[in-house]
UniProtKB/TrEMBL annotation:
GO terms for molecular function: carbohydrate binding. SUPFAM superfamilies: Ricin B-like lectins. It comes from Ceratobasidium theobromae. This is Ricin-type beta-trefoil lectin domain containing protein. Residues 107-141 form a coiled coil. Keywords: Coiled coil, Lectin.
Amino acid sequence: MRRWRFNNASPTLYTNYIPRIQFADNNKVLDLHRGSAANGNEIHIWPADGHFMGNKTWRLERLSNDTGEAFTEEFQGIGARLQHDLNAKTEKLARNELELAGCWNDIADKDKEITRLSKVLAKKEQELSGQRLKLTECEDTIRSLRQQLKMKGAVAHPGEPGQTIQLCNRQSHLENKVSQQQAETANLQAKMDRFEYLMSKMINRDQGSSH
């Protein structure tokens, strides 16, 4: 990295006791061509002892507009407003990130609840399937008993009234049982329908809020 230093020039043919910029590594001096005729836009470089050297061309680049001077009140006000806007946007972004994190947590909780409810629904469906199977078995038994009673009625034997009464009682008991199971099955089906409706409504609400 090149190092420059500011010092006072010794009196020579070309310089008086004036501040100058000197390249410390090889004793070269920058000259703004006295800043008069060229308005400071022409730059020369000389040996520090004042002797001439070959011409050199330099390409200058603007590094910054910062001169070290204090900003005016107008610029200070603009800077304060920009800083205020930046702080407000940063705070808003932080709030949005917190809200987004909360939404993801809610979605995770809803997913867990949906998983739990799905297991409950599967269990209820299994119970309903078992009830329907029992109902079918009872209906088959009732049809068989009715067929037996019909046959007993067609072939009447004086010594078999007790057996007929037993068949009638068994049929009546099974019919009552079937009626009870039908009611339980209908109640369970209604609960499952309500459960599926609420579960579907919750899933649709979560999907709508996630978009």
